[in-house]
Amino acid sequence: MDLADKKDLVAPLGTQSHNVSRQFFSGSSxxxxxxxxxxxxxxxxxxxxxxxxxxISDVKINSLFAVISDKFGYDAREWAKEIVxxxxxxxxxxxxxxxxxNEDRKFGLINDSSINNRGAISPYYIDLFHARLINDxxxxxxxxxxxxxxxxxxxxxxxxxxxxCDIFGDKSQEFDHAQMRFIxxxxxxxxxxxxxxx
Length: 198
Prior knowledge:
Blueprint: H1 3-6, H2 29-33, E1 39-41, E2 46-48, E3 52-55, E4 58-61, H3 65-71, H4 80-93, E5 95-99, E6 110-112, E7 128-132, E8 141-150, E9 153-162, H5 164-168, H6 177-196
Parallel strand pairs: 4-9, 5-6
Antiparallel strand pairs: 1-2, 3-5, 6-7, 7-8, 8-9
């Protein structure tokens, strides 16, 4: 799906862009009406609402996890212990917590990949989340997506592993639209392959 096809998915935070995802996030009805994430922008700062809990019925590892991770230079077998620990934590909890500020990030929490640290949205990453495999270390990261089963039941699918710069670009790329568009489309293609393999 090209950017032209996805641009209609982009909406102000708290409106249509997360209408599906927010259904399984805990919180008061008023909070849910405000959307999954609400941002209050001040002078060079973004303040996020508290952690949200994404209720899940299962956590799966995509059948192409190892294949796609290898494309990014990661041998999933070398990280099996960390991957299993993360999956076990989420399954036993029955939920996954979502953070917004860097101060809150830690092992076991996930972040919305579509919103960068400046509050801008990448249409290609809507409904994608990422988690760190090692506490306080950026790389490697796990890309995660929630899928609806029935009623209010959802499961989390661990798609693949990569580095922070593989999805968000390095400092020389993050302000280069052509470079970032290449990265966005590459990730989007791998997500589509992983989704098709389910």
